[in-house]
Amino acid sequence: METLSGLKDKLNSLGDRFRRAGGDPSATPVTRQAAAGRARRGKSPKFSVVAVDFGASSLRALQEQDGALAAVAASPVAGRVDPLDAFARLEMQAAELRDWIKQGLFKGKRVVGVIPTEGLIAKHLQVESIPGLDVSLSALTMAAEQLDLPADRIVHRCFEVALVRTGGVLRKEVVSFCSPRKLVERLVASMQRVGLDLVGLHAAPVGLAKTFADLTNDSVLVVELGARQASATVLDDGRISVVRFAPQGMDVIDHAIAASLGVSVDRARAARERHGGLEASGIASRLENPLPGGLVEITPASGGVASSGAPVVSGAAAPVSGTDPKSLHADQAVAEVVDELCEELMIAVRYHRGVFPSKRVSRVVFTGGGARCLDLCRRIAERLGVAAQLGDPLAGAERLAGIDAVGVDLSEPTPAFSAAFGVRTCPVDL
Q1: Burial of 199 (0-12, 13-18, 19+ CB in 10 A)
Q2: Are 129 and 171 in contact (CB under 8 A)?
Q3: Distances (CA, A) of 379 to 31, 247, 285, 306, 313
Q4: In 3D, which of 185, 178, 168 has the Cα closest to residue 124?
Q5: Which DSSP symbol is given to 416?
Q6: Sign of the torsion angle spanned by Cα atoms 367, 373, 379, 380
C-alpha cells in the first residue's frame, strides 16, 4: 500500500504535467504561486484580446495570459497574394488569424488591431479652444475639408497635444488620424466572415506611444520603417506630440536597389537584409546590450566602419553587394531615398521644435520590420545627430515559461512587433 507521502508526490507530479500541457505561467516562482492561488480559488486563466498588426508585408499577432505574454506569431505576405491588393491581403490575414485560433495558438475571438497603412493620413490641426466645443467633431470637420472628402467617408480619431496661441487666439493643437471608411468596413467584414470580433482599431503611432510610454523626461523620435511607408512620431513623456507619415518605406528602397542592379525586387530585398540585418550587426542576441523599456543600443556611425568593412558615408546606404559600378549605382539610388526620408523626419522634428520651443529630441528609436536593417538606422541617426536605439518590445515583457512562438525568433530583437504590442492596451471601442 502506498504511503500518504507517496500519493501526494504522485498528485503533485500529475499536477505539474497538467499545468505544462496547458501552458501554465511558470516563468518565475511568483507566477507559479499566482497560478496555484487561482487553482485553489477555482479561477480560469484570463486571456487578453488578441493584438494584431495587419502589416503590408507580414501579419503579426500576440496575446497575454494573466498579464504575461503567452503567444506570438508572424506570417509573411510575399508570394501569397498581390501585395498591392489591400482587400485581398486583409481577407487572407483574417483567415490566417482564424486558423491560428482554431489551432489553439490564441484564445477567444476578440481582436484589437493596427489600422492598415493604406490611405492612413495624419493631420496636425489647430482647433479653437471654446468651452463645451467638441474637439473631435471640429477636428473631423477640418480634416474632411482639407482632404476634400465627406466626413462620413472617414474613420477619424484625434489626440490633443497642446494649447497654442496663434493670432491672439487660444487654440488646441491636435493630431488627427484619418482612414478610408471603406477599408475599415472591409476589414471588419473580413473578420466577421471568419467568426472573429474586431473590437478596437488604432493607428500605429498610437500603439507605439503605448509601447514606449515609459520613455519619460525627454523628447523621443520613434521611427517606424514599414514596408509601404515610414512614420515619425515624437513622444514627450510618453505622449504623442507630432506625427508625420513618409512614403519612403522599405519597398521604395528595395525597388531602388532592384532598378539599379537589374534584378528582381525579391532579390534586392534579400541582398539588403543579408547585408544590413541583425545577423551582420553583432547584436543578434538582445542579451548583449540590455536596456530598460524594451530597447537595444545602436551605436550611430560617425567616421567608423560598416559591418562589411566599407567606409560609412553620411546619408548613404552601405554597399549592397560590392564595389563594382552597378553596386555603386545602387548605393547612390538608395542614398537618394534615404536623403528624402531624413528630410521628412527632420520636418517632424522642426515642427515639434516650433510647438515646443524649450524641448529638443534627444534620441531616435527605430521600429518596424525595416529596423532590422541596422546600417540604415545608423545612417539616419547620424543625419539627425542623435543617439539611436532599436525598439525591442517583447524583450522586457513577462512571459509564460511555455510561450508559443510561430514564425518569430524570440532570441532576436522584435522591432516589427512594436505597434501590435502597444495596441493590446488600447481601448476596445470600435
Answers
A1: middle
A2: yes
A3: 42, 18, 22, 10, 8
A4: 178
A5: G
A6: negative
Q: pLDDT tens across 359-375, in order? A: 999 999 999 999 998 88
User: CA quadruple 252, 276, 271, 74: dihedral positive or negative?
Assistant: negative
Q: Which amino acid is at 257?
A: I
Can you read off the three cell numbers belonging to residue 154? 472617414
> Helix H segments across 264-386?
265-276, 325-355, 374-384
Instruction: Give the chain's mean pLDDT.
Output: 82
φ/ψ of 37, rounded to 5, equals -65, -40
For cell 540604415, what's the residue?
Answer: 376
Kind of pairing, strands 169-180 and 154-166? antiparallel
Give pTM, 2 decimals.
Answer: 0.82
Say which residue the cell 539611436 belongs to.
388
Residue 35 CA to residue 19 CA, distance in Å, equals: 9
Tens of pLDDT along 318-341? 444 455 666 677 778 888 999 999
In sequence order, what are the residues at sequence separation of 6 or more whose Cβ sits closer than 8 angstroms to the Cβ of residue 84? none
CA–CA separation, 140 vs 151, rounded Å? 7
185 by Cβ neighbours in 10 Å (0-12 / 13-18 / 19+) ranks as exposed
Find the farthest-apart pair of alpha carbons in the chain and give their distance in angstroms, rounded. Answer: 92
